[in-house]
């Protein structure tokens, strides 16, 4: 049986990751879910991807015996995407668009959102498809 938690290394300084992994190990946490809100770190600009920080976080966690389940990062579209395609933001009951900066700030039926979501998911899957340090769960 696993004892798991969500972990957001993108919100912490890199120096903190080892401390956190050690604390997880001592607490008996054996599994963490990563990346569900990390789209802006994984794709900081349109078509520019950075997986190095996530690779390093996974390495640190694995050294401490903490397994990783990667989530799709599509729950928080990055600001560059909203700036380029504001129609991705959902309409509120009053007819106004939701503002940027909340989680799940997207319209679930928007085809542009689907296009970019599929693109980041494919890039993440391609990068980690043969990586034994984690499992990818779309």
Automatic annotation (TrEMBL):
Secretion signal span: none
Domain Glycoside hydrolase family 42 N-terminal: 6-132
Gene Ontology CC: beta-galactosidase complex
Alphabetical keyword list: Glycosidase, Hydrolase
BP GO annotations: carbohydrate metabolic process
Example GO molecular function: beta-galactosidase activity
InterPro entries (alphabetical): GH (IPR017853), Glyco_hydro_42 (IPR003476), Glyco_hydro_42_N (IPR013529)
Protein name: Glycoside hydrolase family 42 N-terminal domain-containing protein
Organism, scientific name: marine sediment metagenome
Source species taxonomy: unclassified sequences, metagenomes, ecological metagenomes
């Amino acid at each position: 049986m696993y004892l798991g938690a969500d972990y957001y290394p993108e919100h912490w300084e890199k120096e903190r990751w080892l401390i956190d992994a050690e604390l997880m190990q001592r607490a008996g946490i054996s599994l963490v879910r990563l990346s569900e809100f990390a789209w802006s770190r994984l794709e900081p600009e349109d078509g520019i991807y950075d997986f190095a920080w996530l690779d390093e976080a996974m390495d640190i966690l694995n050294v401490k015996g903490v397994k990783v389940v990667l989530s799709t990062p599509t729950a928080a579209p990055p600001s560059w995407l909203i700036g380029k395609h504001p129609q991705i933001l959902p309409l509120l009951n009053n007819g106004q668009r939701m503002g940027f900066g909340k989680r799940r700030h997207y319209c679930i039926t928007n085809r542009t959102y689907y296009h970019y979501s599929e693109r980041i998911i494919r890039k993440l899957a391609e990068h980690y498809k043969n990586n034994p340090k984690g499992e990818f769960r779309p």
